[in-house]
Specification:
Blueprint (H helix, E strand, L loop, with lengths): L1 H9 L10 H5 L2 H13 L4 H14 L3 H8 L10 H18 L4 H9 L10 E2 L4 E5 L10 E2 H6 L7 E5 L4 E2 L15 H4 L11 H25 L10 H22 L3 H12 L1 H8 L6 H16 L8 H4 L19 H12 L7 H14 L4 H4 L6 H11 L4 H9 L4 H13 L1 H10 L3 H16 L2 H11 L1 H14 L2 E3 L11 E3 L4 H4 L4 H11 L2 H9 L1 H12 L7 E2 L13 H20 L8 H21 L10 E2 L4 H16 L11 H22 L8 H11 L8 H14 L2 H11 L19 H20 L8 H15 L4 H7 L15 H10 E4 L13 E4 L1 H7 L2 H7 L3 H17 L31 H15 L7 H16 L28 H4 L4 E9 L3 H6 L6 H6 L11 H16 L3 H13 L8 E10 L1 H13 L14 H4 L11 H15 L1 H12 L8 H43 L24 E2 L6 E2 L7 E10 L28 H15 L2 H7 L7 E12 H13 L13 E2 L6 E2 L1 E4 L5 H8 L6 H13 ...
Antiparallel strand pairs: 1-5, 2-3, 2-4, 6-7, 8-9, 10-11, 12-13, 14-15, 16-17, 16-20, 18-19, 21-22, 21-23, 23-24, 24-25, 25-28, 26-27
Length: about 1900
C-alpha cells in the first residue's frame, strides 16, 4: 500500500478518477487499522508519512472542480465529479474510525460529551422562545426543547419565528440566569465525564487538517473573480453544491460533542499546521496554484497581504502586537488613493469632495490598516475569509456556529470575525443578496457580541470599537452628497443620500445592530465614552445624518415624482444614531459617570459648531426648507437631560454661550413651525409623503428619539434666552406676526389668508406644549409611563398589545421600562379597566380592551399630552368626544366642554427660567391683542385660539412670581418700546393695566382709517395721551432683531456686518401691496376687563359675570373647587378671574369695579350687523344639523330593525314576520312585494314573483355521529380520527349494500341521499319579480366594482337587505282560500282516502298549471331546478349504476326536501319540544321549494306496479312473486327508509295537497315504521327472550284490540321471521354482541317510541310548512304523544290514558297480520340466500346526535407544537403553511403546490370532499381560522385569545393563547346554520389557490 501511495505522490499528475484496480481492491478498513497501529507506536514517523501520502492521494483537490469547470464532460467517465468526493469522504470516515465502524466511533466519541451548553443552531423561520425573566442579554433565545424542559411558569416569555437564525443559549450563564436552564443543562458536568482516551481521537488529529485544507483548496479553486461587477452567483452556488457533502461531514463532526469539538478547535486554530500546508512553497504545483489564487482573491478584495510591503510601505507587525494593531503606518495617503480607486468607482460627481472628506477623516481615525490589511494565520481565519467571499453560505455559517460551545474556539473565532469586519462590510455593500447576507452576518455576530465577557476581551485586545466605528464611517462615506440646507452654493456639509441602496435597503443594519449590541455592555460602553478620539469619530459619523432628506416646499406645481426616501431617512436616524445613543445613555445613570456626559456634550457641541460653519448659518433659517433629521441636536439634548436628571450636573456648566443657544433653537423650532404648515395644507404640492414625514416624526417608535428631544432642547433654550426674543421668534417662525394687530384688517406678506388661522392655532398650541410639558423637566419614569398611557387610552380604548405598541418605550432594551414589565402592568391596572371580549351574533368579534377609569377622566385627562402624541388629528377629536361623553354620563357637565386645565408636575429647579416666557411683555401684548380681536369678532380667529390664549393666561397665573415683587425693578434700563404698553413684566400686575390708545398700521381700505380721517388731530395732541402705545406688536420683528444684535455684539463685533443687510432686505413689504397708513384706535381695556366682557359674550347675557367671592368669602381660602375643573369657555374665564383675584388684592378690587360699571361692551356698529349675520348663519346651520341628525337617526333605526330581521339566526323575538305567511284569509291570493320595483301583487304565470334564496351544498348532516362524546382534534401521533361512525358513512355503506343485492331503480327509492353534498335552501324572506331580478343582474354584470361575489355564477346580494344569494325560487300562484278548503277535515274512511291517493298519484300532470304550454313560471321552475342540481357536485347526485337514469333525478329531488327538513330540525336543536314557529320557519322557503320539486317529480311517473304505495296498502297474491326470479328482486318494504317514502308519496301528489290525504299517507307509513321498530327490537334481544315473547303475545292474538298491542304484534313478527334465517346466529361470537339487558315492558315501549320519533318530527315539520299550523311545545318525555296527536295519528280519547302506549297510534289499512306476514316473507326470501346481510340491512333506530366541530385543546401551544413540524401525508414534506380541518381533523398544506391536483390546491380540494364546498381550517402558524365557501374564502378570526383577551394573528407576539369557548360556539353555530355568507363580510375569490 505504501508503495502505491508513494508512486502516486511521485507522479507530477495526481491520478485520474479511475484508480488502479489494485488500489480499489485494498480494503479501506484494513488500511485504516494498519495506519492506526503504526501511529500508536512511540516512534510513529513512518506511520505519519504513510498517512500523509495516502491523504495526498485521496484528497487531491484537482479533479472534481476541473470536471465541474469543463461543463461536466468528465461526468460520463468516472461516475461524475461526485464519485471521487464520495470516495474521499468514505476514506476519511474509515481513517477517523481507525478501522472500526464509523457509527460505533461516533457513539464512542459522544459518550465523552460534557453537555454543559445546548448551542443548537437554527436558521431563519425556526420557532424559538425568549424569556425576559431569565435573560441577561435581550438577545437570549432558547430552542423549543430546552424551553419546555425548563420551568418558565409565570415568566414573561414569548414564542417567535427567527428572522435571521440563531442558537440556543441554554446552559450559558453569561447570557441567561441559571434558574432558567433546562433539565439537561442544569448539571454543570465536567467532573463526572471520564477523560478521553488518547487513541480514540488520534487519527482525527492527523486526518482533519488535511481534510480542511482540501476544503480550502476547493474554495480557492472555485472562486473566480467576477469579470464585471456582477459576481456570477451561478458559479458560486455550483461550487457550494459540490462542497455540500464535505461541509455536512464537518457539521456532523461538531455534533459529536465536546471531545470532537476540541480536536477541531486545535486543527482550526493551529498556526503551524496552516503554515506547513498552505504556504504554497515546495514542489507541489497544485498547492502553488491554489496559493496564487488565494493571493489574487485577496488583492481583488481591495485587501493587501502584508508580505507585499513594497507596494504599501506597511511594516510586518511584530509578534507582540495583535493581528490588527499594525501601528507603523507610513503611506496613509497612498493607501487611501488605492482604496478610492478600487472600491469607490461609483462616486463620480462628488468624488473630489468625497476624497477631501476622506483624507480628513482617515487622519482622525487611528489606523488605516483596519480597512485593508488581512493576514491569515490559521485555517479558521482563511475559512472565514472564504465564507465571506462566498457571501455566507448557510451550511458554512451553521458549521462555524456549531463549534461555539467550545470556549477556546469561541474566543479565537470572535477575534477572527473582528479581524475580518471591514472585509465583511465591503462584501455586504457589493452583494446582490444583501438581505440574506445581512441575516447570516447577524446570525453569527449576535452569538459573539451578546456575551459581555467576550465583548470586553475583544475590545481590549482587538480594538473592537475602533474597528466598528471606522467601518461604519467608511460604509456611509460611499453614499455622501452635498447638503443643500441653508446655503446651497457654498455649503461644505455632506450628508448621506437616502436614495442610495445602502440606506434604502437598510444594508447597514447588521453593522449598526452589532454596534448597539456591544454598547449595551457596561464595560465596553465605558471604554467608548472615555476615548476622546472615538467620540470625535462618532460625532463625525452622526453629522452625516444631520440635515439629510431635505424637503423644499413646492410653491407652484405639484411634484411629479413623490420620493419615498423619507422612510429610509427615519430608519437610518433611529437605528444608526438614536439607538446607539440610548445604549450609551443607559450607562450614564449615576453621579460617578458625570465625566462621560461632559465628554459627549463637548464633542457634540464641537460637531454642531462645525455644522453651523459648514452650512454658513448666521441667524435666519432659509425659507421653505425643512429637514426632520437633527441627530446632533438630539444627542446634545438627551445627554443634557440625563445629566440633570440622574447625574446631578449643573446645567449651566454644560451649556454654551447665548449666541450658540440662539443658533441651536432655530432648526428644532423650524420643524415645529413646519409641522403646523404641513397640517395647514401649505405643503400639499409636495405630495402625501410630506404628511408621512410629519406623522413618522411623532409616531410612537420615533417620538422619544425625535420630537421629545427637540421640544426639550427648545425648553432649555427658552429657559436661558431672553423671553421677549424667544416669543417673537416663535411668532415669526410661524409666520403670524402680521396677524397680531389690533386693526380689523391687515396684510400678511408671508402667509395666505386661508392658512392664517391654523398657523396661529399652531403657534399657540406649540407655546402651550412648550410651557406645560414636563417629560424631561422633572417627571419620574413611572409618572411618564402613566401620562403616556393615559393619553393613549383617552384617544381610544386599546388592546394590551396596541398599548404596548403605542407607548414609546425607551428604545434601549436594558432601560427597565419594558412593556409587559412589572411597572407597565401595575400602572395599567391603576389607570384602566379591562373590558372582556364580547360577541354580537351578527357582528364582528371584539377583542379584550382597556378603557380609562372614571377618575382618570376626572383628574388625569391631559389634552396637551394627547396633542403631542397623536399621529392623526382625528385622534384629538376622538379624545375630546370621549371626554364629553364621560362628563355627560356622570352629570358633571351637559354641554360641549373645553379641554380641561391640568396641574403640572413641579419643574426641576434647573429649568425655572422657562416660566419667564409667561411673564414677558411680548407675550402679554399678544394675549391682549388676541383677546381684543376675539371680542371684536375679527376674522380668522377660532374657539381654539381663545382656548389656548386662556390656557396661557392660566399657566401664567399658576406660575407667577411672588406677589408683584418685581414690578418696580423692571422699570430700570433704557426706555424700551414695549414699556408704553405694560409697566412691568409680571402677568398678575399687567392683567389690570388699562391700555387706552393704540397706533396701528392698516391698509387704506380698512374701516378704521375712514373713521379717523375727519378728526385729523395734530400729532402733539396725540402725545398728550400718555398711553398712546405707539409701538404696536408689529414691532415684534424689530424687537427680535434688536435683542439678537445686543447678544451678538456682546460676543463678537465682526458678526455685525453680516447681519445688518439681511434684515433690511428680508422684511420690506413687497411693493405690490396696498399702502399702509397709520391709524389710532381707542381701546380703553385691560386684560381683566376683556375677560369679563368675553364672559358676557360667551354666555350671551349682559352682566353675566358676578364675582363669586362677594357671596362666599370661603372661595378665596380654598380655591380648588370641583365646580370649575370641567366646563366650557365660561367656566375657564371664571376660573381665571378667580385665580387673578386670589393672586392680588388689587386685581380683586378692579374686577369688582369693572362689574359695577354695568355698561355693556360697545363693539363697533358694523360688527354687530356682521355678528348678527354670523349668528343667523350659525342658527341656520344648527337647525340644518338637527334636521340631518333626525333624518339619519330615522334611517339608522329603519336599517337596524331591518338588519335584525335579516341577520339574526336565533332570536325569534325581534323578527318582523314576512308578508308571505301573513296574508289575511279574506284575500283570495297571496300578495308579494317586489323589493326592486316596489309594486305589490300576486304571483302569476306570466309574471311570476320569486323568493331571494341562497342555494348551498352542505355536508353538515353527514357529520352527525352516534355517540355524545365529541371528537377531539388529534394532538399526538396515536390519536387518529376515522370517519366510519359518521352519518354520511353509514348511509353510504347501506346504499351500496342494497345495490349489491337488489334492483337498482328500487334501491334508489329506498333511501335518501344528501347527507353529504345535500342542497340547502335558505332565504332572507324578500321577494322580487323574476323579470326585475334579471335586469338587476344585468346591471350588476355591467358594474365592475364588485366585491367578493361573482355575477357570472348567478350570485348577487338581496337588493333590500344585502344578504348574499344566488338564485330565485318562483312562488307558486295559489289562493289562500283553496288552502282553507283543503284543510277542512273530511269524514271519509281511511280506505276511501287510500284509493283517492292512489288515483291522484296515477294521473300524471294533474296540475292546475297546464304543463304543455311553456309559461314564464314553468321556465323559471325549470331554471331553478337546474340551479339546485348545479349547486352540488356530480358525485353527490349520481348514485345509480346506470348513469343519467331518471331514477337518479328522482332520488336527488326528494332528498333535497329531506335535507332541508333534517337541517331545520337540527337548527331547532334536534327535537320539536320548543314548538312554535322558529325564525327559520318564518323565513322558510320550504313551501315554495315543495312546489318546484313536486312539479318536477310528477314528470317521472312511477310505474304503478312498482309504486310502494301498493305494497303498503294492498295484499298481493303470492304467485306474482315467482315471475321475477331471473332479475334482481326489489328492495323488501321493511328495508325502505320510511321518511323517504313519505316524501316520495307527498311529492307525487298534485299540489296543493289536501290535509286528509296527507294524514292518510302518514297513517299508512306509521304502520310500516312501527313494524320496522318491532323487527329491530326482535333482533336486538336474545333467543330466550324471543321465544318468551312469542308465546305471551300469541295468547292474546284474538283479543279485540290485538292490532293495537305491541306485544301481540311483536310475537307475530317473531313467529313470521323465524320461518327465515334472520335469527340464525353465526356461532357464539354473535351472542357476545347482543346486549344482555333484561327488557322490561317500559324499556321496550321507550325503544319503540325512540325508534318512531325522528319520523314524527320530520312529518310534523312538513305539516307545519305545508299547512301553516303551529307546532305545540312540550316536555321532552311527552314529545311522542304530542306530535302523534298533532299529526292526527292519535284519536283524541286516547290522550288521557296514563301509561301512554305507542301502539295506540296504529291504524292499519288492511288486516295487520296479513300485511305483516307479506312484508316478512320478502325478508325471509332474501335471507334464504344472504343470511348474513339480512340483519345488516334492517332499519336500525336512529341514533344521530347533533353535529359538532372537533373539540380543541385548552392551550394553543399543544396544537402548534404537534402540527407545525408535522409532515404532510401526501407530499411527506413539512408544509410551509400547515392547516387542519376543524370538521374532520385532516392535516393539509395551505397553498402548497406540492399537493396540487388539477389546478386545485389541497385546502380547496378538501373543502369540496369534506364539506361539499365549505371548509373550516385552522391555520397552524397563524392561529386564525379561514372559511372556504365555494369559490370564495374569508378570514374568520381566531378562537384562541391571550390572557388579555386578544387574538394573536400570525403568532407575532407569541404569547400563550387559550381557547375562547364562546367564539368557538359562534363558529360552530354559523357552520350548522349555514350563515357564514351572511355574517362574515370580507370575502374574496381564492382562485383554487388555497
Amino acid at each position: 500500500m505504501a508503495a502505491a501511495a508513494a508512486a502516486a505522490v511521485g507522479g507530477p499528475q495526481p491520478p485520474q478518477p479511475e484508480l488502479p484496480a489494485a488500489g480499489l481492491a485494498l480494503d479501506k478498513a484494513a488500511t485504516a487499522a494498519h495506519l492506526k497501529a503504526a501511529l500508536s507506536r512511540p516512534d510513529n514517523r513512518a506511520g505519519a508519512e504513510e498517512l500523509q501520502a495516502l491523504l495526498e492521494r485521496v484528497l487531491s483537490a484537482e479533479r472534481p472542480l476541473a470536471a465541474a469547470a469543463d461543463g461536466e464532460e468528465a461526468g460520463g467517465g468516472g461516475g461524475g465529479p461526485g464519485a471521487a468526493e464520495e470516495e474521499a469522504l468514505e476514506w476519511c470516515k474509515c481513517l477517523l474510525a481507525g478501522g472500526g465502524g464509523y457509527e460505533e466511533f461516533c457513539a464512542a466519541v459522544r459518550a465523552y460529551d460534557p453537555a454543559a451548553l445546548c448551542g443548537l443552531v437554527w436558521t431563519a423561520n425556526f420557532v424559538a422562545y425568549r424569556c425576559r425573566t431569565c435573560g441577561i442579554s435581550p438577545c437570549m433565545s432558547l430552542c423549543a426543547e430546552c424551553f419546555h424542559q425548563g420551568d418558565h411558569t409565570g415568566h414573561d416569555f414569548n414564542m417567535f419565528r427567527s428572522q435571521a437564525g440563531g442558537a440556543c443559549d441554554c446552559g450559558d450563564s453569561n447570557v441567561m440566569r441559571e434558574s432558567g436552564f433546562c433539565r439537561r443543562h442544569q448539571i454543570k458536568s465536567s467532573s463526572n465525564i471520564p477523560c478521553v482516551p488518547k487513541d480514540l481521537l488520534m487519527m482525527s488529529e492527523f486526518v482533519l487538517p488535511r481534510f480542511i485544507f482540501c476544503l480550502i483548496q476547493y474554495l480557492r479553486e472555485g472562486y473566480n473573480e467576477p469579470a464585471a461587477d456582477v459576481p456570477s452567483e451561478k458559479d458560486l452556488s455550483k461550487v457550494l453544491q459540490l462542497l455540500e457533502p464535505q461541509i455536512s461531514f464537518l457539521e456532523d463532526l461538531t455534533k459529536m460533542g465536546g471531545a470532537m469539538r476540541s480536536v477541531l478547535t486545535q486543527v482550526l486554530t493551529n498556526q503551524q499546521n496552516y503554515k506547513d500546508l498552505t504556504s504554497g512553497l515546495g514542489e507541489n504545483t497544485c498547492a502553488k496554484k491554489s496559493h496564487e489564487k488565494y493571493l489574487i482573491a485577496l488583492k481583488s478584495s481591495g485587501l493587501t497581504y502584508p508580505e507585499d510591503k513594497l507596494v504599501y510601505g506597511i511594516q510586518e507587525p511584530s509578534a507582540g502586537t495583535s493581528t490588527l494593531a499594525v501601528q507603523g503606518f507610513a503611506g496613509a495617503t497612498g493607501t487611501l488613493g488605492q482604496l478610492d480607486s478600487s472600491d469607490e468607482e461609483d462616486q463620480d460627481g462628488s468624488q473630489g469632495l468625497g476624497k477631501r472628506k476622506r483624507v480628513k477623516l482617515s487622519s482622525s481615525t487611528k489606523d488605516q490598516s483596519i480597512m485593508d490589511v488581512l493576514k491569515h494565520k490559521s485555517f479558521l481565519e482563511e475559512l472565514l475569509f472564504w465564507t465571506i467571499k462566498y457571501e455566507f453560505p448557510q451550511k458554512m455559517v451553521t458549521f462555524l456556529l456549531n463549534m461555539l460551545p467550545d470556549q477556546e474556539y469561541k474566543v479565537a473565532f470572535t477575534k477572527t470575525f473582528v479581524q475580518h469586519y471591514a472585509f465583511i462590510m465591503k462584501t455586504l455593500k457589493k452583494s446582490h443578496e444583501s438581505d440574506t447576507m445581512s441575516n447570516r452576518i447577524v446570525h453569527i455576530s449576535v452569538q459573539l457580541f451578546s456575551n459581555e465577557e467576550l465583548a470586553r476581551q475583544v475590545t481590549e485586545e482587538c480594538q473592537l470599537l475602533d474597528i466598528m466605528v471606522t467601518v461604519l464611517l467608511y460604509m456611509m462615506e460611499s453614499c455622501l452628497i452635498k447638503s443643500e440646507l441653508q446655503d446651497e452654493e457654498n455649503s461644505l456639509h455632506v450628508v448621506v443620500n437616502c436614495g442610495e441602496a445602502l440606506l434604502k435597503n437598510n444594508t447597514y443594519w447588521p453593522l449598526v445592530s452589532d454596534f448597539i449590541n456591544i454598547l449595551s455592555h457596561q464595560s465596553v460602553a465605558k471604554k467608548f465614552l472615555e476615548d476622546h478620539g472615538l467620540l470625535v469619530t462618532w460625532m463625525n459619523f452622526v453629522s452625516f445624518f444631520q440635515g439629510m432628506n431635505l424637503n423644499k416646499r413646492e410653491l407652484n406645481e405639484h411634484v411629479e415624482f413623490e420620493s419615498q426616501t423619507y422612510y429610509a431617512a427615519f430608519a437610518a436616524e433611529l437605528e444608526a444614531c438614536a439607538q446607539p445613543m440610548w445604549g450609551l445613555l443607559s450607562h450614564c445613570k449615576v453621579r460617578e459617570t458625570q465625566e462621560y456626559t461632559r465628554n459627549v456634550v463637548r464633542y457634540c457641541l464641537e460637531a454642531l459648531q462645525d455644522w453651523f460653519d459648514a452650512i454658513n448659518f448666521v441667524d435666519e433659517p432659509a425659507p421653505n426648507q425643512v429637514t426632520f433629521h437633527l441627530p446632533l441636536h438630539r444627542y446634545y439634548a438627551m445627554f443634557l437631560s440625563k445629566a440633570v436628571k440622574c447625574q446631578e450636573l449643573d446645567l449651566d456648566s454644560v451649556l454654551p454661550d447665548q449666541e450658540m443657544l440662539m443658533k441651536l433653537m432655530i432648526h428644532p423650532l423650524q420643524i415645529q413651525a413646519s409641522l403646523a404648515e404641513i397640517h395647514s395644507n401649505m405643503w400639499v404640492r409636495n405630495g402625501l409623503q410630506i404628511k408621512g414625514q410629519a406623522m413618522t416624526y411623532v409616531q410612537s417608535h420615533f417620538c422619544n428619539s425625535m420630537i421629545d428631544p427637540d421640544i426639550y432642547l427648545l425648553q432649555v433654550c427658552a429657559s436661558r434666552l431672553d423671553p421677549d426674543y424667544f416669543i417673537s421668534s416663535v411668532f415669526e417662525r410661524f409666520k403670524v406676526v402680521d396677524l397680531l394687530t389690533m386693526a380689523s384688517q391687515h396684510q400678511n406678506t408671508v402667509l395666505d389668508a386661508e392658512h392664517e388661522r391654523s398657523m396661529l392655532e399652531g403657534a399657540l398650541t406649540f407655546l402651550v406644549i412648550l410651557l406645560s410639558l414636563r417629560l424631561h423637566l422633572g417627571m419620574s419614569d413611572d409618572e411618564i409611563l402613566r401620562a403616556e398611557m393615559v393619553a393613549q387610552l383617552c384617544m381610544n380604548d386599546r388592546t394590551h398589545s396596541s398599548l404596548i405598541h403605542h407607548i414609546p418605550e425607551n428604545p434601549n432594551p436594558k432601560s427597565g421600562i419594558i412593556p409587559g414589565s412589572y411597572s407597565f402592568e401595575s400602572v395599567l391596572s391603576a389607570v384602566a379597566d379591562f373590558k372582556a371580549p364580547v360577541f354580537e351574533p351578527g357582528g364582528s368579534m371584539q377583542q379584550g380592551m382597556y378603557t380609562p377609569k372614571a377618575e382618570v377622566w376626572d383628574q388625569e385627562f391631559d389634552p396637551v399630552m394627547v396633542i403631542l402624541r397623536t399621529v392623526y388629528r382625528r385622534d384629538v377629536q376622538s379624545a375630546m368626544d370621549r371626554y364629553t361623553a364621560f362628563l355627560k354620563q356622570n352629570g358633571k357637565f351637559p354641554g360641549n366642554p373645553w379641554p380641561p386645565y391640568k396641574k403640572r408636575t413641579p419643574l426641576h429647579p434647573s429649568y425655572k427660567g422657562l416660566m419667564r416666557l409667561l411673564h414677558c411683555k411680548t407675550l402679554h401684548i399678544v394675549l391682549f391683542t388676541l383677546l381684543y380681536k376675539i371680542l371684536m369678532d375679527h376674522q380668522n380667529l377660532s374657539e381654539h385660539v381663545l382656548c389656548m390664549v386662556l390656557y396661557l393666561i392660566e399657566l401664567g397665573l399658576e406660575n407667577s412670581a411672588d406677589e408683584e415683587a418685581d414690578e418696580e425693578a423692571s422699570v430700570c434700563g433704557p426706555e424700551r418700546c414695549h414699556d408704553s404698553w405694560f409697566p412691568g413684566s409680571n402677568l398678575v400686575a399687567n392683567m389690570r393695566h388699562f391700555i387706552n390708545y393704540v397706533r396701528v398700521r392698516v391698509p387704506e381700505t380698512a374701516p378704521e382709517v375712514k373713521r379717523d380721517s375727519p378728526a385729523s388731530t395734530s400729532s402733539d395732541s396725540l402725545g398728550s395721551l400718555q398711553n398712546s402705545g405707539t409701538a404696536q406688536v408689529f414691532s415684534l420683528v424689530a424687537e427680535r432683531r434688536k435683542k439678537f444684535q445686543e447678544i451678538i455684539n456682546r460676543s463678537s463685533n465682526e458678526a455685525n456686518q453680516v447681519v445688518r443687510p439681511k434684515t433690511s432686505s428680508k422684511w420690506s413689504a413687497p411693493g405690490s401691496a396696498p399702502q399702509l397708513t397709520t391709524a389710532i384706535l381707542e381701546i380703553k381695556e385691560s386684560i381683566l376687563s376683556l375677560l369679563i366682557k368675553l364672559h358676557h359674550k360667551l354666555s350671551g347675557k349682559q352682566n353675566s359675570y358676578y364675582p363669586p367671592w362677594l357671596d362666599d368669602i370661603e372661595i378665596l381660602i380654598q380655591p380648588e373647587i370641583p365646580k370649575y375643573s370641567h366646563g366650557d369657555g365660561i367656566t375657564a374665564v371664571e376660573r381665571i378671574l378667580l385665580k387673578a383675584a386670589l393672586q392680588s388684592r388689587m386685581n380683586k378690587r378692579i374686577i369688582e369695579e369693572i362689574c359695577r360699571k354695568v355698561t355693556p361692551p360697545v363693539p363697533p356698529r358694523k360688527v354687530t350687523a356682521a355678528e348678527k349675520k354670523t349668528l343667523d348663519k350659525e342658527e341656520r346651520r344648527q337647525k340644518a344639523r338637527e334636521r340631518q341628525q333626525k333624518l339619519l337617526a330615522e334611517f339608522a333605526s329603519r336599517q337596524k330593525s331591518f338588519m335584525e330581521t335579516a341577520m339574526d339566526v336565533d332570536s325569534p323575538e325581534n323578527d318582523i314576520p314576512m308578508e308571505i305567511t301573513t296574508a289575511e284569509p279574506q284575500v283570495s291570493e297571496a300578495v308579494y312585494d317586489c323589493v326592486i320595483c316596489g309594486q305589490s301583487g300576486p304571483s302569476s304565470e306570466d309574471r311570476p314573483t320569486g323568493l331571494v334564496v341562497l342555494l348551498q351544498a352542505s355536508s353538515v348532516l353527514g357529520q352527525c355521529r352516534d355517540n355524545t362524546e365529541p371528537k377531539k382534534l388529534p394532538i399526538t401521533e396515536e390519536e387518529q380520527i376515522y370517519p366510519w361512525d359518521t352519518c354520511a358513512a353509514v348511509h353510504d355503506v347501506r346504499l351500496s349494500l342494497l345495490q349489491r343485492y337488489f334492483k337498482d331503480s328500487s334501491c334508489l327509492l329506498a333511501v335518501s341521499i344528501g347527507w353529504e353534498g345535500g342542497v340547502y335552501v335558505q332565504t332572507c324572506g324578500h321577494t322580487l319579480h323574476i323579470d326585475c331580478h334579471k335586469s338587476y343582474m344585468e346591471s350588476l354584470r355591467n358594474d365592475q366594482v364588485l366585491q367578493g361575489f361573482s355575477v357570472d355564477k348567478g350570485e348577487f346580494t338581496c337588493p333590500l337587505c344585502r344578504q348574499f344569494a344566488n338564485s330565485v325560487l318562483p312562488c307558486y300562484p295559489g289562493s289562500n282560500m283553496e288552502n282553507n278548503l283543503w284543510q277542512r277535515p273530511s269524514n271519509k274512511s281511511l280506505q276511501d282516502l287510500i284509493k283517492e291517493v292512489e288515483e291522484l298519484q296515477g294521473r300524471p300532470g294533474a296540475f292546475p298549471v297546464s304543463f304543455s304550454s311553456e309559461t314564464n313560471l314553468s321556465k323559471e321552475m325549470e331554471s331553478v331546478m337546474k340551479d339546485i342540481k348545479n349547486t352540488t357536485q356530480k358525485k353527490y347526485r349520481d348514485y345509480s349504476k346506470t348513469p343519467g337514469s331518471p331514477d337518479n333525478d328522482f332520488l336527488f329531488m326528494y332528498s333535497v326536501a329531506r335535507t332541508n327538513l333534517e337541517l331545520e330540525l337540527i337548527h331547532r336543536g334536534g327535537n320539536l319540544c320548543s314548538g312554535g314557529a322558529s325564525t327559520a320557519g318564518k323565513r322558510s322557503c320550504l313551501n315554495q321549494l315543495f312546489h318546484v320539486l313536486a312539479l318536477h317529480m310528477r314528470l317521472y311517473s312511477i310505474d304503478s306496479d312498482f309504486n310502494p304505495w301498493r305494497k303498503l296498502t294492498q295484499l298481493e297474491e303470492m304467485n306474482s312473486q315467482l315471475g321475477n326470479e331471473e332479475q334482481q328482486p326489489e328492495v323488501p318494504i321493511l328495508y325502505h327508509d320510511v321518511t323517504s317514502l313519505l316524501l316520495i308519496q307527498i311529492l307525487m301528489m298534485p299540489q296543493p295537497l289536501r290535509k286528509d290525504h296527507f294524514t292518510c299517507i302518514v297513517k299508512v307509513l306509521f304502520a310500516l315504521l312501527y313494524t320496522q321498530a318491532l323487527v329491530a327490537l326482535s333482533v336486538k334481544c336474545n333467543e330466550e327472550d324471543r321465544s318468551a315473547w312469542k308465546h305471551t303475545g300469541a295468547l292474546k292474538k284474538n283479543t279485540c284490540d290485538a292490532e293495537k298491542s305491541y306485544k301481540v304484534l311483536l310475537s307475530f313478527v317473531i313467529s313470521e321471521l323465524s320461518k327465515g334465517k334472520l335469527y340464525h346466529e353465526e356461532g357464539a361470537q354473535e351472542c357476545a354482541m347482543v346486549s344482555p339487558i333484561a327488557w322490561s315492558s317500559e324499556s321496550m315501549e321507550k325503544y319503540l317510541q325512540d325508534f318512531c320519533l325522528p319520523f314524527l318530527r320530520i312529518t310534523s315539520l312538513l305539516q307545519h310548512h305545508l299547512f301553516g299550523e303551529d307546532l305545540p311545545s312540550c316536555q321532552e318525555e311527552e314529545e311522542f304523544s304530542v306530535l302523534s296527536s298533532c299529526l292526527g295519528l292519535l284519536p283524541t280519547f286516547y290522550q288521557t290514558e296514563h301509561p301512554f302506549i305507542s301502539a295506540s297510534c296504529l291504524d292499519w289499512p288492511v288486516p295487520a297480520f296479513d300485511i305483516i306476514a307479506q312484508w316478512c316473507s320478502e325478508i325471509n326470501s332474501f335471507t334464504e340466500r344472504h343470511a348474513e346481510q339480512g340483519k345488516a340491512l334492517l332499519i336500525q333506530e336512529s341514533r344521530w346526535k347533533l353535529p359538532h366541530l372537533l373539540q380543541l385543546p385548552e392551550n394553543y401551544n399543544t396544537i402548534f407544537q404537534y402540527y407545525h413540524r408535522k409532515t404532510c401525508s401526501v407530499c411527506t414534506k413539512v408544509p410551509k403553511d400547515p392547516a387542519v380541518c376543524l370538521v374532520c381533523g385532516t392535516f393539509v398544506c395551505l397553498k402548497g403546490l406540492c399537493c396540487k391536483q388539477q389546478s386545485y390546491c389541497e385546502c380547496v380540494l378538501h373543502s369540496q370532499n369534506c364539506g361539499a364546498g365549505t371548509g373550516i381550517f385552522l391555520l397552524v402558524n397563524a392561529s386564525v381560522i379561514i372559511i372556504i365557501r365555494g369559490h370564495r374564502f374569508c378570514l374568520w378570526g381566531s378562537v384562541y385569545l391571550d390572557a388579555h383577551g386578544e387574538e394573536d394573528r400570525d403568532l407575532r407576539r407569541g404569547k400563550p393563547l387559550y381557547i375562547c369557548k364562546e367564539r368557538y360556539k359562534v363558529l360552530e353555530q354559523q357552520w350548522i346554520s349555514h350563515t357564514f355568507d351572511h355574517i362574515n363580510k370580507r370575502w374574496g375569490p381564492h382562485y383554487n389557490g388555497l
